[in-house]
Write a structure and sequence with these properties.
Structural class: alpha/beta
Radius of gyration: 18 Å
Strand order of the largest sheet: 2-1-3-4-5-6
Shape: globular
Number of helices: 11
Distance between the termini: 13 Å
Order of helices and strands: HEHEHEHEHHHEHHEHH
Oligomer: single chain
Low-confidence stretches: 1-18
Mean pLDDT: 92
Largest sheet: 6 strands, parallel
CATH topology: Rossmann fold
Length: about 260
C-alpha cells in the first residue's frame, strides 16, 4: 500500500506538465517592443500555460512580448538546450532592442551554458527562480522514483540531479534571484530524504550565482507556476531598474520548513 500511495502521489505531481505548449505572441513587434523569455521547467502544466497567456496579455500593454517555449526534450538537458537555441533563432529574439529572461529551475540548467557559448548582445536581464528545497527534487526522483520519472520526463531530470548548478559567467546582463521558501507536496513527502542531502540554506550566497539583487517569495515551486501573476510586478521592476522593489522581501526564512519529515 505504501508503494501505491507513493506512486499515486508521484504520478499526480509529474503529470502536471503533460500537455503544456509554447506561448508566443500573435503579432510580435521587435522594433517597438521588448521581449520577455520565460523558461518553464518540469512543473510546466496546462494551468501554468494559461497563467503565462494571461501574463502575455498584461505585458503587451507595457510594450513587452512574452515568449515561453516548450523546449524540454526527453533525450536530456543538452538536447533541450539545442531546442531552446532553435526557438530563440526561429522567433528572432535577437532582433529586439532589449531581451529579458525569467528562468524556472530547469531553465537555468538549460540556459546558462547556452549564453556562455553564444551570447545574445541584446540580453538586458535574467531573473532566476531558485529553491534550496525544490532543487533536491531531481535527486529524490533519481534515487527513489526513477522509473516513474523516466516514464514522464525521460533523462532531463536525471541530468539536473547529477550536474551541479552551472552559474552564468557573463557579466553583461543584470541578474536577479527569487528564492522560493515553501516546500512542494513532493518535497514534504520525502522530507527526510531531502534533509539527508545536507543543511538547508536560504541565504543568497547559496545560489552560487552572481546577482545584482536577491529576494524571497512565500511560494513553493508548484505555486510559482500557477501564481506567476503575483510575482510579475517584481519581474517588471527588475527589468526596468536592475533591482527588485523596496517592498520585496529580502530577509531569509529562519528554521526548517520541513519539520521532522514524512519518509518512512
Amino acid at each position: 500500500m505504501r508503494v501505491l500511495r507513493v506512486a499515486s502521489l508521484t504520478l499526480a505531481v509529474v503529470t502536471l506538465a503533460a500537455c503544456a505548449g509554447s506561448v508566443v505572441p500573435g503579432s510580435p513587434d521587435p522594433v517597438a517592443r521588448e521581449a520577455l523569455l520565460v523558461l518553464p521547467g518540469f512543473g510546466y502544466s496546462n494551468d501554468a500555460e494559461r497563467v503565462l497567456r494571461r501574463a502575455q496579455a498584461s505585458l503587451a500593454a507595457d510594450g513587452i512580448d512574452l515568449y515561453a517555449p516548450s523546449y524540454v526534450e526527453r533525450e536530456g538537458i543538452d538536447e533541450s538546450r539545442e531546442e531552446l537555441r532553435e526557438f530563440i533563432d526561429a522567433h528572432g529574439l535577437a532582433r529586439y532592442g532589449r531581451l529579458h529572461v525569467f528562468a524556472f529551475i530547469a531553465g537555468a540548467w538549460t540556459l546558462n551554458p547556452l549564453l556562455d557559448s553564444a551570447s545574445l548582445p541584446n540580453l538586458a536581464s535574467v531573473i532566476y527562480d531558485r529553491s534550496p528545497l525544490q532543487e533536491r527534487a531531481p535527486r529524490i526522483a533519481d534515487e527513489k522514483l526513477r522509473f516513474l520519472t523516466w516514464l514522464r520526463y525521460g533523462r532531463p531530470v536525471f541530468d539536473v540531479a547529477r550536474r551541479p548548478y552551472p552559474p552564468l559567467a557573463s557579466t553583461t546582463p543584470r541578474i536577479g534571484v527569487l528564492i522560493e521558501t515553501k516546500p512542494t507536496p513532493l518535497i514534504r513527502r520525502f522530507a527526510r530524504t531531502a534533509l539527508s542531502y545536507g543543511p538547508l540554506r536560504f541565504d543568497c550566497g547559496w545560489t552560487t550565482q552572481r546577482h545584482d539583487d536577491c529576494a524571497y517569495v512565500d511560494l513553493n515551486h508548484d505555486e510559482l507556476y500557477t501564481r506567476f501573476m503575483d510575482v510579475l510586478p517584481e519581474v517588471l521592476v527588475f527589468m526596468r531598474s536592475g533591482r527588485f522593489s523596496a517592498q520585496a522581501v529580502r530577509t531569509a526564512p529562519a528554521g526548517n520548513p520541513l519539520g521532522p519529515g514524512a519518509d518512512p
